[in-house]
């Protein structure tokens, strides 16, 4: 009889029947009934209603029945906490059972019942089990500590279980050691700063001994733990490596990869001229190669890690190219990874082989793979200069196959080759041109157009070719349209006589007939350039382009170092720092490879390996993408009414706030929001790209912005700069906008005063921001409820969010705004005080602060002077605190007060500062440290603005 | 200060396991921490939909709150749910153990078998993992905890009401040799070793070897009483490039003397795997002469295949089978084989030619015409050809066992070594 019989019962009355059977007097019937319940559970049916009946079966000598009931309990105790208490007595009793199997089973199950009330009862039995004479019970109890910690961490600490657990590291049984390590690892994950295990040469020695004797899984725990140790010197490092190397021959691939991690990390400390260093390098290759003959899923993870390893130490696998050759029946995810590694390993020595392979792959069935293979040929050309010619001819061969997607892919990469080796392979242009008609993908079309434009002077019929694209101009994607516009302008500059008509045609298509602001802007720029100063136009448009770099997709070195420390983890599969993606990893620390230290140099432990990064997100600096095509983006504003249907901000409340701080106080409050000369330049761009139809000049009046003198100090509260005129009426057909920014109750508000100085009524207001450094965006629509009559003024408060699109601006706090009304669209720029972005939870813990301060490299530190400030250090601290600049510690040295402060920006960037205030000296010195040093200047300006107001 | 910086990376934890059949039905779920709704599998099923082939489903998938790590094996998906940073290899290895355990207990790994033994599978999973930490994954330990089913026992159990669950602590569980229980007793003591080598190779159009390596494995079937301590030595151990051992093998002895010294688990186990990738050592036992051409008119083409022996070390090549993955547009084939028979599956576009034994005097040939779908252009992609073969009594690398010695026990065991060479991923490009 099989278990499928348990599923034959009809749905109706099933629970009822089971209930009766569970309460039967016959043991066998009871057991069968529990089995049926479990069977239902395994397929996801809800049988929680049977809880009391099942628990009643728990007191039994039959171990199988007991186990089954325990299985049930673990699944449902959480949903029936009161009932679960019923089970406690039996657990406590079982923990005293003479049979170690039952003792272990009881302590193990109790830990799985995630009910608060039960945990108190668990403590005593657990304490006994941790000291049980039987190692099987001890090792089970060790895991139970981790479970209990997950439910009630405080309890575990108060009961001293952590110390007991630490003691188990020295247990005589290796399995107990391994489980203790595993449990501590899990607990430590939620306690990044806790001093859970003092890794020192003695404890390391114990771990290394246990490593040889415990199970494969235990070995993984121990190896992962070892990887966190920072050896004192190269000798210790070598001796650990020697004892870890045998693990490379383990049948379990996870053990192998964890061993690779330890070795990759510790070998960093070994001098390169050491014989052992070379030996170790040689030993690493075979196990990595062997991983590739395992199951495809294992291969995939191995390949993702090998990708990191070859970037860090290409020498390990440089002779193993062939094992990465793709087999046609590899799963696609393995194929794509292998291809990546092949390119990384490509060198002059093996390029011929690689190219032959890639060419072979280009005729495979799988389209994605074929495309990537063709791209790979291009990457080889760019990486290995000597092979470029061969690559180009391979690509030409592929183009001859006329397979549509192969041709298109080839043209895209040939464009890159042209950029890397200008004026070298132009002879192939003719062949490329033959395929013009078959290109239907935007990227390929754009690439081809780029080539024609770039080499227009050598292509006799360039004008015809480009003209042929113009016919369907409006059907092309933006990418192609932009490229076509530029290409024709290039052509015009090179052959002005014959192509005047063509360029006019494209300019008018781009500026008059297109709704795409990117395209329009670019069109206007070209138009103006060409009409005002053709020489300048030539310099701009035909400027020499920067060469593209060798390998475009290399992982940035500090990230690579961190990932090497995380070999074998999910982070290594995703190539992202652990902090970036694992939910609930409270305060992941950043790891760095250890520095090389000679044994004689120092006995002090080097500050390596485990630099406590606190919760500072490493990725933060990269949150701000580099300033891209600013011109292109400026007008890419969709001014339709915002689709957000969220509740409008309560206007009465915010209006009240306005009255108090805005409007009438304008003249009283003054502030220097720190305009820099760069501002002017930033604005200089704006008018140039204004659509010609908006011929209102705009640049000039913005100087007003900076003419604000210092003003009267404000009472406590976050610093709010006074309103200034952002958009003068004369530039906006009678609409005058002035405004400021404030942070109120954690929400950033843009506070606007709109005045209608025109003769007609204004309605239909809407607002939109350009992408900006911190992703500021309106959190709701602009609430202008009534039409704005002539000479009427209205105060509006617009709540902002920080989840909008991000682009780095210059200056950083520049914000480009478009406001629309029934008359027109108006553009202006303003700068917001960066202090608006300081969030309320920006107070760092002291420990974290210290660690972070050390961890941020000194080159990220900047120093400023704040002059003429007459506050004592407490007043300073209070005043700054009101603006979310938190004082963490204060120290007085030689009559000089040192204030340590932290700020957290809305995008998660931390700014740490040290402010020195000397009694009687009105000049303060401030040092700022931040992983994204570009914000320092702005932050300093905020300090100054807050302190002086 | 160092202790402050001491930190721990990861906690190895598998939260839940789902078994999913090829049509996307979840037929078993097991949770080790708390219950996670099976709707989490939707992300996986979505990826499954997207993949052309079940083998192409990516093994690691991220969802907003979890990571899904899966393997595809025996036409089933083993899908685990992870909530914290966990080494994916750890999880994948474990999932393979689960599949092996099912195979080991029930003779096959299939949906039917799991459904028929649902409760036992569930009990086993509980034994294998505690709080997401692997607990007992060694077959012999598991079998002492939960006895595998057999017809006789289930009859006895039904009559007597006794149980499948062992009530004493497995003896191997805590000793330093967890893979072996004490008190093993046999009337016939025997130890057999199979040296199995698979050739992985890529041969290009012209017949040149692009890549070749040998994946070797030494499978053991040891049924010896007591605590035997074995030493296995090879005539030519230096052939082996990279080795991975069963945990029972003493690594130090291998390092210093190149012998395998071990106390074996009881029954069947993999003693060692190795590979040989020095190109010159890898003999290619067969060659294929192939030609495939298509008429310019586009209506069809011709195929001509001949298989012959190459470096066979004087042995007979048997079980030869050629599989050609045809271009998509081939509608049907009309071929004549001088030896063996062929089938063509129009759904998968697989042409399979089962040849059998290779006779060097009369080489098997298969030729004939291919017809294309009407109106289809000449196929763009080149087909690839896979070869299966077997050579008895030969390890193609030349590896030879020298001798097997037993210490620790007094009796004289039967000993035997068998060699076999097979094609692994052996492919020829056309």
TrEMBL record, chain A:
SMART domains in UniProt: Alpha_adaptinC2, ARM, B2-adapt-app_C
Domain Clathrin adaptor alpha/beta/gamma-adaptin appendage Ig-like subdomain intervals: 719-829
Xref: InterPro entries: AP_beta, AP_complex_bsu_1_2_4, ARM-like, ARM-type_fold, Armadillo, B-adaptin_app_sub_C, Clathrin/coatomer_adapt-like_N, Clathrin_a/b/g-adaptin_app_Ig
One Pfam family this sequence matches: Adaptin_N
Low complexity compositional bias, start-end: 628-643
Sequence ranges assigned to domain Beta-adaptin appendage C-terminal subdomain in this UniProt record: 838-948
Record has Membrane as a keyword: yes
GO BP annotations listed: protein transport
Keyword entries, A-Z: Acetylation, Membrane, Protein transport, Transport
Membrane association type: Peripheral membrane protein
Family: Belongs to the adaptor complexes large subunit family.
Annotated protein name in UniProt: AP complex subunit beta
Taxonomic lineage: Eukaryota, Metazoa, Chordata, Craniata, Vertebrata
TrEMBL record, chain B:
Membrane-spanning intervals of the chain: none
Keywords recorded for this protein, A-Z: Cytoplasmic vesicle, Golgi apparatus, Membrane, Protein transport, Transport
Entry's family note: Belongs to the adaptor complexes medium subunit family.
Any single biological process term in GO: intracellular protein transport
Record InterPro entries: Adaptor_comp_med_subunit, AP2_Mu_C_sf, AP_mu_sigma_su, Clathrin_mu, Clathrin_mu_CS, Longin-like_dom_sf, MHD
UniProt name for this protein: MHD domain-containing protein
Subcellular location(s) of the protein: Cytoplasmic vesicle membrane; Golgi apparatus
SUPFAM superfamilies: Second domain of Mu2 adaptin subunit (ap50) of ap2 adaptor, SNARE-like
CDD domains: AP3_Mu_N
GO terms under cellular component: clathrin adaptor complex; cytoplasmic vesicle membrane; Golgi apparatus
Membrane found in the keyword field: yes
Ranges in a coiled coil: none
Major subcellular site: membrane
Membrane topology, from the record: Peripheral membrane protein
Domain MHD: from-to ranges: 188-429
